[in-house]
Amino acid sequence: MRILIVGGPEKSCGGALRPAEERLRAAGAETERFWPLRTEGLLCSGCGACLGAGLCVADPRGGDFLRAAAGCDGFVLAAPVGLFGLGVDFRNLLRRASELAAHGGKNPFAGKPAAPLTVGRQSRRAAAELRELAEALGLELCELTELLPARMEEEEKT
After folding, report:
1. What is residue 27's three-state secondary structure?
2. Four-residue CA torsion sign, 76, 71, 147, 134
3. Looking at the domain that runs over 2-39+50-157, which CATH code has it been given?
4. Angle, alpha carbons 26-69-39 (nearest 5°)
5. pTM for this entry
6. Cβ distance 28 to 3 under 8 Å?
7. 8 A C-beta contact, residue 126 and residue 79
8. How far is CA 113 from CA 43, 80, 87, 137, 143, in A?
9. Residue 107 CA: distances (Å) to CA of 97, 153, 157
10. Which of these, 31, 10, 120, 102, lies nearest to 62 by C-alpha position?
11. Domain limits of the chain?
12. pLDDT in tens, 110-147
């Protein structure tokens, strides 16, 4: 089982994620981290370049995210939270991935479990926005403790 841990910068999220990552590894999961690059606050301009190329010309790292998502069985979404809600780079990565997945044919996120976590300042608004972005990707939300056992039970049944 492969779990993709998507988070903010190592400085702000790395230490908070170590216990969760160690717990997943102890349970037999292979983990990989994906940190979004700085996008300078750019939002989707609706240029449509992703429709043909399969990647965002404003943020080519979005294509890397889709490829990493296709090869994993579940996600930990560790969103950095500041004074004004979710970190802009994290938010933009999920929004662009949602657009690319919608236009690129097969959605690599659909039906996969995801544990949404907010790191830093805790706010209900940021947590709700993170859940909304995850659901827009087609992810099934769960608690971190449910992430690995739920997938292992499904594999044993088949």
Report:
1. coil
2. positive
3. 3.40.50.360
4. 110
5. 0.76
6. no
7. yes
8. 26, 20, 22, 11, 9
9. 10, 23, 24
10. 102
11. 2-39+50-157
12. 899 999 888 776 678 888 899 999 998 899 999 887 77
